[in-house]
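Q: Predict the bound structure with manganese (II) ion.
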Amino acid sequence: MSPLTELPDDIARDLREFTIEVPSWAYGNSGTRFKVFGTPGTPRDPFEKIADAAQTHAMTGSSPRVSLHHPWDRVEDTAALRSYAEDLGVQLGMINSNTFQDDEYKYGSLTHSDPAVRRRAIDHHLECLAVMREAGSHELKIWLADGTNYAGQDSIRARQDHLANSLAEIYAGLQEGERIVLEYKFFEPAFYHTDVPDWGTSLLHCLALGEQAMVVLDTGHHAPGTNIEFIVAQLLRQGRLGAFDFNSRNYADDDLIVGAADPFQLFRILFEIVQQDAHRPASGVNFMLDQCHNLESKIQGQIRSVLNVQETLAKALLVDREALADAQARYDVLEANAILMDAFWTDVRPALAAFREEQGLPADPFGAFRASGYEEKVAAERVGGNQMGWGA
Ligand code: LRH
Ligand code: MN
Ligand code: MN
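A: Predicted complex:
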């Protein structure tokens, strides 16, 4: 099949509107429990993370927002961070709460049996809402490390009740136009049960809370073999898919570059998205990355990720949906599958290069960044970068 050299107008329009939010923590050093390898030039504070994220946007033109993790990205003056970001051409995005590092949360946070610990965790989220407003954002992401390691360790049922009550208190702090998004994960750091392990649990809590509560789907947070595109279709059908945390994985929550481990899975997910028009900004789905670059250059890793999502979205939009519907109606299983595969195998890179040039962007964002000298410059300027957000 010959490569696609020009995007059809409707696909070009969709791609111009489509944005990907990048995580501040992807620009910091990260690693495993075995070792965190440092990278020269790693940001030393949230301002430097924003500066690096702005590079990703300058090269791709598609990543104009940066998610912050609180308190990793705590600064004295969030308004100053916001205007710094805006001067560099990006905005502050989703605020991510963090109740997984303090000793008080050893046995849980919003689910803890001790009301004093729950109070502390709820107050942290209310503080996050205040930071969110200062940041000019309207979304708070909640992911909880809460769970147990051994059967019998605590009451699963009581913890659900505490969770529902705690979330209701946070939800009551929302103003019009704001929302919370609740991320699920089936294991880690808890290894017996997790309090928000799956999309069903997240959805149940969101439904109980109200329309300003939505589910976040992190692609690394499922058991191997899970059909993630089914979950996407179902949550969209319910109008409750709030955001993605895109990454890819071979084994567990590997946080690898999106599309690296299984590009076809990314395509299948994005095809469900485009079938419900959820890639258009009006859908309100926030397409975010949640990744860690343990070995590779962080900015380059982020650029690669943004390009992978963009290219795969273009492929999903290329599917001949009329022909597909026709094949499906005729129960022609193999033709229906072939129509999908044709789009997946199309090389859209030349068309995207032309699309970028038309917008005054580098045809090859990855190559342009490598040639820009930015990494060499910051490596000389910055000494002593931090691991992920820890201590930043
Ligand atoms: C949990 C998670 C969540 C956190 C991030 C650092 O595994 O995906 O989104 O905020 O990692
Ligand atoms: Mn995540
Ligand atoms: Mn994760």
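A: The longest strand covers residues 91-96.
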